[in-house]
């Protein structure tokens, strides 16, 4: 098979399904289009460290916007340098984590607290940072420090070992209102055409008729 054949994954068509594209059969215009789209994808990769841009532009925060744009350009230039040096590797499917979901959730909670503490230590306020950005930074901490996952496992084990010394039924009771709301939501999911919100709403009071006004 010719060296200019590219195996393009068609993700939604199934696992390992590809279309074999012979680039030599593309017109110059279509080849340029493919190159442009490919370069766009490569040069705009690794941008998770860049802060928001669109919102800052709308809010008129010019200084912060300038910093974020300069960082984005710096990363793009670095991507181009790596591309020209042959240091760009094809993206591979992210390996499915073997960690149970509860461990992943606890590890992320711990890592998010680490990120927030570092923001505070630097004199900042976590509330001034987007939750998405804090989570992305937390994921980087988890990748860099295996002890976070071990701590998450330890926390979960400790929680599982805690035994209540008092009967929970004597301390807390079900809320009839919340039980009714949950039932209404479940019924709404079964009945088409009625949203859960509508199902949980009290029917509006009917306006009194003219006759009723007269009788009062």
Provide the descriptors you would attach to this structure in a database record.
single chain; extended; two-stranded antiparallel sheet; 216 residues; 2 strands; mainly alpha
Give a written overview of the molecule.
By secondary structure, the protein is mainly alpha-helical. Among the domains are: 1-43, no CATH class; 44-89, no CATH class; 101-161. Helices cover 56% and strands 5% of the residues. The protein has a two-stranded antiparallel ribbon.
Summarize the structure.
This protein has helices at 28-43, 54-59, 62-85, 101-121, 131-144, 147-161, 176-190, 196-199, 210-215, and strands at 5-9, 18-22.
Query: Radius of gyration, Cα only, in angstroms?
Result: 28 Å
Mean pLDDT: 81
Strand-pairing-aware structural class: mainly alpha
β-strand number: 2
Shape: extended
Share of residues in strands? under 5%
Poorly predicted tracts of residues: 209-216
Q: How many helices does DSSP assign? A: 9
Strand order of the largest sheet: 1-2
Distance between the terminal alpha carbons, to the nearest Å?
A: 92 Å
Topology:
Elements: E1 5-9, E2 18-22, H1 28-43, H2 54-59, H3 62-85, H4 101-121, H5 131-144, H6 147-161, H7 176-190, H8 196-199, H9 210-215
Antiparallel strand pairs: 1-2
Helix pairs in contact: 4-5, 4-6
